[in-house]
Design brief:
- Helix content is 83%, strand content 0%.
- By secondary structure, it is mainly α.
- The chain has two domains: 145 residues, no CATH class; 88 residues, no CATH class.
């Protein structure tokens, strides 16, 4: 019996210390998976939608970069907001291209630099045959990073909305409880699940669609849906527990 308790205690301690690593691994995995989906969608656009994929991807990247530049020029109050997209862009580009040496190899091939025989084989067999696709992927990955940064910058807004909507929803719950209002577990579940559904779909479309989209048209509707869904979630939380 004592050994079972010790084993259970050890398992609980392991879970308590390892859960941050579990969440970190899951976040990184989702981050890489969404980037790969963005690249796959961009290659589909390049094949079926864009007449000149290199020019189209470059125009997309320039449009997203110009949006960040306008934020930086608008005043000191926007510098903190605009710095996150820049940091996320550089980090994402480093992870997918600089850490994998694709950046150096591509620019070495374009500049015609002299390299050793092993690198020359790599340049001629892979980079030379796919230089347009690599350049397209470079632009798309940087757009993906910028959009990740915009979403990260909007986290304080969603946290504020969550606390306000929770307070309002719990107030309505106590009024409903005092007045013997109806119990509705279905609305509670609807409010909780709708946040996940709308967030997953809207964020995936925003991050993975190679079309110039202002973050305003993504964050503002999501914020409204998030606030309403959170209020319903707590308003119709079970009256007695």
């Amino acid at each position: 019996m004592a050994s079972k308790r010790v084993g259970l205690y050890d398992n609980n301690v392991a879970v308590a210390f390892l859960w941050p690593l579990k969440w970190l691994f899951g976040t990184v995995l989702l981050y890489v998976l969404l980037a790969l989906i963005a690249l796959a969608v961009a290659f589909l656009f390049a094949k079926y939608q864009w007449a000149d994929p290199v020019t189209a991807s470059d125009a997309l990247f320039q449009a997203e970069s110009a949006r960040v530049a306008r934020l930086l020029q608008s005043g000191a109050h926007a510098e903190g907001f605009a710095s996150l997209p820049l940091v996320a862009q550089r980090w994402t580009y480093w992870l997918f291209f600089q850490a994998t040496t694709l950046h150096d190899a591509t620019y070495a091939y374009i500049a015609g630099q002299r390299v050793n025989e092993v690198d020359q084989m790599y340049l001629t067999q892979f980079v030379a045959r796919n230089v347009r696709e690599i350049y397209l992927a470079m632009n798309v990955i940087q757009v993906y990073g910028i959009r990740i940064g915009f979403l990260m910058a909007s986290v304080p807004l969603f946290m504020l909305l969550y606390f306000v909507a929770t307070a309002d929803g719990l107030t309505e719950r106590y009024i409903r409880r005092a007045c013997a209002g109806r119990e509705s577990a279905d609305i509670h579940k609807l409010g909780r699940l709708s946040k996940l559904m709308f967030f997953a779909s809207a964020v995936t479309v925003y991050l993975c669609t190679p079309v110039a989209i202002s973050p305003f048209w993504v964050i503002v509707p999501l914020a409204a849906i998030f606030a309403v869904a959170t209020r319903l979630q707590w308003q119709f939380y079970k009256k007695y527990f």
